[in-house]
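Lab notebook, bench 4. Still working through the backlog of constructs that have no structural model yet. Next entry is a single chain of 335 residues. Request: give me the structure tokens for it.
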Amino acid sequence: MLATLPLLAACGTDADEPAGDDARAGDRGPVVLRNCGRTVTVERPPRRVVSVNQGSTEVLLSLGLADRMVGTATWTDPVRANLRSANAAVPRLADDVPSFERVLQQEPELVTASFGFALNGDDRDRRERYAKLGVATYVAPSECTDRRGGGSGDGPRARPLRIAVIHDEIRQLARIFGVPERGERLVTQLRERLARVAAAPRPPRPLTVAFWFANAKAPYMAGCCGSSGIIARAVGVRNAFADTHDEWPQVSWEAVAERDPDVLVLGDLTRRQQSAEDFAAKVRFLESDRVTRRLTAVRHRRYVALNGADLNPSIRTVDGAEKLAAGLRRLGLGG
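Model written out:
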């Protein structure tokens, strides 16, 4: 097991890429990381890792680490298509948050997560329990970066999330596993793809977009400062709720009607935790509710579907930007 201090919070190249020389980088000495106010020390590259969020899972698979993964959990969508083959060999422990005992059955040296809630489950701080057993924990830096009052989760940020924070997660995990060159290649690929989106012609007129994740009664709409903000800035549109600093504030449909967005981005989730999870359910609600059916985006059926994973801070953030840009073009609203 690893000699480690607990880590408070953080979250491909080809998944089939062989280990190569960069796999030996971690043998040069321990990796020490400062993350969300805590320090973690990893003495050697982990051989057994459980990732308890889809975003973290897809980073590890993209770094070619499937052979070190002994479990995954907390999925909102099918795995990214290019990672399907590698992921098929990794046990899925749970579709939602796994129990502490279920994770420990895999005898992990490291547990990674995109969000603190998935790492902790019903415990106040499960990281401490892992640490007492010599198991390192890592949560994506996007979970706590620039959070007001040092908080985490969906709380307000002092400033909008930047794509560089996602790059930091990739580089840190690549260092932990002794494959830094793979991390740099993945960061380069993501940076180049997002730059292509940003360099494309902008919509011919200013557009306002609202990002609806889930829940029909009190919808979770993207605020200014999460992954959706990165997507909106890259595509060149305005987030209808850019004046709110929470990641996913719950708002009323009357508040949405007041802002009357030109386009609605609809989360197409495969999980079943709240109402109106998938794209079709969202459209049915929008076109039947007495308030929402009057929205400009609904009257003109201006919808763009994104996976739930595309709307969370991860490598899929770039997918989300590409899909939104393509969706606007299909609607005749792109540059």
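Notes after review: The two ends are 53 Å apart (CA to CA). Residues 203-331 form a domain with the Rossmann fold fold (CATH 3.40.50.1980). Flag for follow-up if needed.
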